[in-house]
Amino acid sequence: MQEKKDAMFSYQFPDGDRRLAFSRQSSFRHSHWDPPLPSPSSTPIPLMPRSHSFKPHLARSDSAVGLPLLDNSGHKDATWVALILAPVRGVANGSRPMKRLALMISLNVAYSMVELLLGLFTGRVGLVSDAFHLTFGCGILTFSLFAMGISRKKPDETYTYGYKRLEVLAAFTNALFLLFLSFSLAVEALHAFMQDESEHKHYLIVSAVTNLLVNLLGVWFFRSYARVNIVYWKPEDMNYHSVCLHVLADSIRSAGLILASWFLTLGVENAEVLCLGIVSVAVFMLVLPLFKATGSILLQIAPSNIHPSAFNKCSRQIASLEEVLEVSQARFWELVPGYSIGSLSVQVKKGVHEDRILQHVNGLYNDLGIQDLTVQIDYE
Amino acid sequence: MERQRSEGSQTIDISIDVPGDISSTPENPKICAGVACNLSNSTAATRERDTSMKKLSMAIVLCIVFMAVEVVGGLEANSLAILTDAAHLLSDVAAFAISLFSLWASGWEATPRQSYGFFRIEILGALVSIQLIWLLTGILIYEAVQRLIYESGEVKGVLMFAVAAFGLVVNIVMAILLGHDHGHSHGHGHGHGHSHEHGREHDHDHADEHDHDVHEHDHDGITVTTHHHGHNQSPKDASEPLLKKSKEKKKRNINVHSAYLHVLGDSIQSVGVMIGGAVIWYKPEWKIIDLVCTLIFSVIVLITTIKMLRDILEVLMESTPREIDATKLEEGLCQLEGVVAVHELHIWAITVGKVLLACHVTITQDANADVVLDKVIGYIKREFNISHVTIQIERQ
């Protein structure tokens, strides 16, 4: 970890100082990304950067989700089914954040069940809608949990890059849900504004308070991720951040409802509209950086922690070698935060031995932070 | 689109797609040209994209018109049900807008930051679209529950039925609009790399004369007849009849397909609400049937989205596309002369149909790297129709 930070210092960072804030979080890190191992071949080229080798911190076995390996067709449907059948074992063997998330989800589910039944029996629509909302949120959180569990599987034939991407995907789904939430709150505010009759749904206060407490508990669990802008070092960072933002947004919403109710009793007009509007804007601003970051990984945008001029510099350095004619098709993308992949094509003069070039190119890009590079050498 | 090609990025070396240029590359297929065809835009793709964009725009305009009608009618009749249906139509507009934007974005040129082009946007757009469908299904279930709770009989079965019928008609019109040219330019999919539709890696609007009927999902023994390489751009009318007789019924453009799914889901739900409305109209005390119906139809809608979700997930997880057998590819490569082993094989897709490959090939000490590279790239292109490959040759 330290070497990586040192290597990064030589390049420009937009928010370089924030990284230091994470040096005390080592207790949360359970395992670093294990690069997919090259098959045993006697290649002399050190393709995996030794200086950046990440050693797994996890004391328990790495693939703690002990899933029965099905016939290795790698067919996706069968794998998903088997995984769904073993969630309890997975959580029990899982890391601490996983257990906390599972606890939160079960609390939420229990609470929403109670609310739903109560709402149905007493005929209170507000309770039912709140229960629905909670259930939706729980579903998304369960997907995050699922992603945490699966992401530790080793790469297999179909998923040659492993399953870590699922964490990014879960974070994206969370961010998307929060955006929808913000939008729906805005619609609700508009609705309240147009209807102009403030319905004093006081029975909702109890539900809002309970919701707030449960969500604050969740925020406490993931308190190190309770910020808007985080530099992501590992895929789990994104997932945890998204869960934290989810809980945070939910608690803000409950707080907003409580505030609105209180203002209404104070006689402030349009309190509901105001509070809902503020909450909607707050949630939107909260989630936008996460959405952009996860979106840019899913869109295969070039690694964000590497300045584009650094790529150009490397390219020029390679092109300046005397055997090299030109460098083309240099493409880089991030698989997950902390693991970047690239490919490029180098045209060299005839008869040049490729080992030296490969070593040089690999070394250059490894220093940059690209862990997996495929170099195609074309002879002119 | 050709105009903009010259203002390319610094790192991407995309050759200009002019006649005769690409025909010179069969002997040197490793460099840019193969990439250019797959990841940039040829005339065929642009044409197809324009058609799809036109269709989506028409659908959006139609939707807005209907929505305006419903809003006015709902405000007049002071009915919440009609306004709710108008909101559903608004969601349709949102889905179409997302698809339209994704379609438009996929035509943008690649930049250094976005080195593979903007094709991924359509996958994310489709994902957002499907999330919208799920959200709406949830809202519909919630509404059904709400109708159940409001025992006061505010619900008028007639109104529900009428509104749902109107919504159904609108949705059917749009489904026809979006899906009507099955055999038309949609056989193309995205025009290039659909490995199970075309046997070519270069221009695809002409080359399918022979392989159309033999080209199923596996690629055994399909060879590229070289005389097609020289044909860069065939006249448009020669290509149209081929496209029309295309037998590929699926793999239409993913954006149009997701918009189509949205409309289909809405029609199914309209049918469900209609049945519920009819039941309540006929026997107002059987309110629970409404909820049951809605639940059943919501499940049906969710099932229709599962297939597309699988495709999206496959792409986003950077997994090997379903149509390519990685083991066979590896075995085939190992059998080539000079190749000792293949490792670090990664096959992944940018979007449905555009596949990329990267691997390390170990060759014997005395083999000619250039020759082996040629053979490997040629083999992959021939058998699996993956044109953008990056091969790192290492010696033992």
From TrEMBL, chain A:
<dbReference type="InterPro" id="IPR002524">
    <property type="entry name" value="Cation_efflux"/>
</dbReference>
<dbReference type="Pfam" id="PF01545">
    <property type="entry name" value="Cation_efflux"/>
</dbReference>
<feature type="transmembrane region" description="Helical">
    <location>
        <begin position="271"/>
        <end position="291"/>
    </location>
</feature>
<feature type="transmembrane region" description="Helical">
    <location>
        <begin position="168"/>
        <end position="190"/>
    </location>
</feature>
<keyword id="KW-1133">Transmembrane helix</keyword>
<keyword id="KW-0472">Membrane</keyword>
<feature type="domain" description="Cation efflux protein transmembrane">
    <location>
        <begin position="102"/>
        <end position="299"/>
    </location>
</feature>
<protein>
    <recommendedName>
        <fullName>Cation efflux protein transmembrane domain-containing protein</fullName>
    </recommendedName>
</protein>
<keyword id="KW-0812">Transmembrane</keyword>
<feature type="transmembrane region" description="Helical">
    <location>
        <begin position="127"/>
        <end position="147"/>
    </location>
</feature>
<dbReference type="InterPro" id="IPR027469">
    <property type="entry name" value="Cation_efflux_TMD_sf"/>
</dbReference>
<feature type="transmembrane region" description="Helical">
    <location>
        <begin position="101"/>
        <end position="121"/>
    </location>
</feature>
<dbReference type="InterPro" id="IPR058533">
    <property type="entry name" value="Cation_efflux_TM"/>
</dbReference>
<keyword id="KW-0813">Transport</keyword>
<dbReference type="GO" id="GO:0005774">
    <property type="term" value="C:vacuolar membrane"/>
</dbReference>
<dbReference type="GO" id="GO:0005385">
    <property type="term" value="F:zinc ion transmembrane transporter activity"/>
</dbReference>
<dbReference type="InterPro" id="IPR045316">
    <property type="entry name" value="Msc2-like"/>
</dbReference>
<feature type="transmembrane region" description="Helical">
    <location>
        <begin position="202"/>
        <end position="222"/>
    </location>
</feature>
<dbReference type="GO" id="GO:0006882">
    <property type="term" value="P:intracellular zinc ion homeostasis"/>
</dbReference>
<feature type="transmembrane region" description="Helical">
    <location>
        <begin position="243"/>
        <end position="265"/>
    </location>
</feature>
<dbReference type="GO" id="GO:0005794">
    <property type="term" value="C:Golgi apparatus"/>
</dbReference>
TrEMBL record, chain B:
<feature type="domain" description="Cation efflux protein cytoplasmic">
    <location>
        <begin position="321"/>
        <end position="395"/>
    </location>
</feature>
<feature type="transmembrane region" description="Helical">
    <location>
        <begin position="123"/>
        <end position="145"/>
    </location>
</feature>
<dbReference type="InterPro" id="IPR050681">
    <property type="entry name" value="CDF/SLC30A"/>
</dbReference>
<dbReference type="InterPro" id="IPR002524">
    <property type="entry name" value="Cation_efflux"/>
</dbReference>
<keyword id="KW-0472">Membrane</keyword>
<protein>
    <recommendedName>
        <fullName>Metal tolerance protein 1-like</fullName>
    </recommendedName>
</protein>
<dbReference type="GO" id="GO:0005886">
    <property type="term" value="C:plasma membrane"/>
</dbReference>
<dbReference type="Pfam" id="PF01545">
    <property type="entry name" value="Cation_efflux"/>
</dbReference>
<keyword id="KW-0864">Zinc transport</keyword>
<keyword id="KW-0862">Zinc</keyword>
<feature type="transmembrane region" description="Helical">
    <location>
        <begin position="288"/>
        <end position="309"/>
    </location>
</feature>
<keyword id="KW-0813">Transport</keyword>
<comment type="similarity">
    <text>Belongs to the cation diffusion facilitator (CDF) transporter (TC 2.A.4) family. SLC30A subfamily.</text>
</comment>
<feature type="transmembrane region" description="Helical">
    <location>
        <begin position="93"/>
        <end position="111"/>
    </location>
</feature>
<dbReference type="InterPro" id="IPR027470">
    <property type="entry name" value="Cation_efflux_CTD"/>
</dbReference>
<keyword id="KW-0406">Ion transport</keyword>
<feature type="domain" description="Cation efflux protein transmembrane">
    <location>
        <begin position="58"/>
        <end position="317"/>
    </location>
</feature>
<keyword id="KW-0926">Vacuole</keyword>
<feature type="compositionally biased region" description="Basic and acidic residues">
    <location>
        <begin position="194"/>
        <end position="217"/>
    </location>
</feature>
<feature type="region of interest" description="Disordered">
    <location>
        <begin position="184"/>
        <end position="217"/>
    </location>
</feature>
<keyword id="KW-1133">Transmembrane helix</keyword>
<keyword id="KW-0812">Transmembrane</keyword>
